[in-house]
Model the fold of this input.
Amino acid sequence: MENTAFKTALVQIRTELDQEQTMEKAGRMVREAAENGAQVVCLPEMFNCPYSGKYFKTVAVRGHEDSVRAMAAWAKENQIVLIGGSVPETEDDRIYNTCFVFNENGDQIARHRKVHLFDVDIPGMRFKESDTFAPGEDITVFDTRYGRFGVAICFDVRFPELFRAMAKRGAKMIFLPAQFNMKTGPAHWELSLRMRAVDNEVFFAGASSARYEGFSYECWGHSTVVDPFGTVLASCDEKEQIIYADIDLERTDIVRAQLPTFNCLREELYAVAK
Done:
């Protein structure tokens, strides 16, 4: 019988303009998380690259391979499952916003390319991720020694169908590397994480970057872990830090027995006629 209990850590790192400095710090923080007992560690979106169109292509040109090798080494050296936030991934002439996942042996066990690109034009905030990135095409779930997890990236969280599909494919905990901004963060960050957890009766972990005061894109921070009943297990402010939560995936089965949402689905009614 698999052990469904583990400690998870979300590494809320501040990405520096110098990539080598950032990677050295990320490795150090992952090691600290493992030394404090974390068995599953998650980094934030674009942790190795300043979140700005000015930097995406520059970092992408260098290639993602060195970052992938570093993450694989961190996972193996610390004997952890590592959800590697996201990095700019290049393939042919396309760039993707991609999360690589590694097991305790340093083997890559999943890859999620951000499906929904962040193209918004709201008062005080205009950003068009599709100017740089191509969208992913996959729903990503993967197996670990603790059970089945899912992963998505930031803006993906606004599309509940994606997470219902993960839950139906067996995911009992979903990780969301992200960088919500100063407009949507206060309004929607915790609300979105809690609702996706409640919708699907899963653990949900939103791993944000720390805020870089004065940078062109200031993210909200506030990394958060939520249980299947919508209860916040751990959260923090905007500063650089690591947060921890004790997880037991059996809790999903308990909540689903108490509130049998999945037994009550009426999928024959949900299709939207074109």
